[in-house]
Amino acid sequence: MASGVENLGRIPELRNKLLWTFALLAFYRVGIHIPVPGVDTAALSEFFRSASNTLFGLFDMFSGGGLSRISIFALGIMPYISASIIIQLLTVVSPDLARMQKEEGAEGRKKITQYTRYGTVLITIVQGLGIAVGLESMTSPTGLPVVLAAGWAFRFVTVLTLTAGTILVMWIGEQITAKGLGNGISLVIFSGIVASLPRALINTFRLVGAGELSVFLLIALGLVMLGVLVAIVFVERGQRRIPIQYAKRQMGRKMYGGQTTHLPLKLNTAGVIPPIFASSILMFPGTIAQFSGVEWLQKAATWFTPDAVLYNLLFVGMIVFFCYFYTAIIFDPNQIAENLKKGGGFIPGIRPGQKTREYIDRVLARITLWGALYISVVCVLPMFFIAQFKVPFYFGGTSLLIVVGVAMDFMGQLESYLISRQYQGLMEKAGRVKGRR
Q1: Residue 29, by phi and psi: left (phi above 0), alpha (psi -120 to 50) or beta?
Q2: Three-class DSSP category at 260
Q3: What is the C-alpha to C-alpha distance for residues 83 and 95, in angstroms, rounded to an integer?
Q4: Structural domains in the chain?
Q5: Model pLDDT for residues 272-297, shown as the tens digit of each residue
Q6: What DSSP character marks residue 36?
Q7: Comparing C-alpha atoms, which of 140, 143, 132, 137 is closest to residue 43?
Q8: Which of the listed ranges 81-90, 143-152, 365-374, 419-428 does the model predict with the highest average pLDDT?
Q9: Which of 117, 116, 98 minimizes the C-alpha distance to 108?
Q10: Which residues are paired to 35 by β-bridges?
Q11: Residues facing 243 on adjacent strands
């Protein structure tokens, strides 16, 4: 891997993919600093300064700081994720969508992607209108109104701007996935969290200087983060390897097959998708309630703050659900069993076909449970630590899990690309040598 990284500049295709990825992410970060017209950014900054450890802080982290600035990318990629959740859930209950996803191949997936885009626009319009109305009723701690000129003109401009910004962020994510390197949606969230880290570190040292955070607690926080980081890396690399034996087959005078291999099942098959999906669902009603001027809704929104018991219970339940749900979508034991049967492979002690499918499904269900528990512990335990000692929210387990998981996935794809290119280079050299002979 190290020698491959040294030669990144010598592979034009990979260099172009990396440049395209970083250019789009840089464009996204520039858009974060462009505010929506008609908002007093100074009053807004004062308001968010007092809400850094609430649900606003969590939403702002996922939007890369766009919400605290009410920028054109204030909603970030969360409406797209919400629409994806809805479409994926509908594929379970709708036979037409299920057939479209499984049987129609690329065309079916293209239609589902189009439906997801339409859903993103609808969700953005609803959220944008709620934010616009909420901004009109917000004032800074010093009494300054956040909106300079309230009214339907401001609401229309805000909804239009936020909708256009969300569509542009969605396009950026899709372009990174198609022409760049890595998962574009995950990288957009990753860039927002990483960009917030310097500000979080500055605020942390400011708290230490003001005496609000002790040096001992800061060291303890660093050790906890290091422990969580090591645990994430260790578990993300964990696999359950199911042995596969291929029967010997005779073709003419030669005997083929008979080799032994394994089927690797990751402990965390769903990756960082479950906490992202769970956070997206929990943030939506709470954020709209806090932006609204209705008193009982704002009181109910306090139940969905990251340090609330109800929030964490729902968060853990949704993480477990989405771990199983997303694993069932991306991994089909029935297809694996059929491919093994067609290729003459079998699991020692397990009959091919239906029994193999049941065995793989049973093993996958067990390791998914452990994976879901691992994600829940990583995401929830730091929440209690933060709530108890009032440290900045940026050091939560969810952000660490996303940053480490996306970084490992990105480096894994980069390594696979380098290995494939090296293999192709060796094959081309072998072909040239053979041609000379």
Answers
A1: alpha
A2: strand
A3: 19
A4: 2-436 (1.10.3370.10)
A5: 888 888 877 777 666 666 666 566 66
A6: P
A7: 140
A8: 365-374
A9: 98
A10: 71
A11: 262
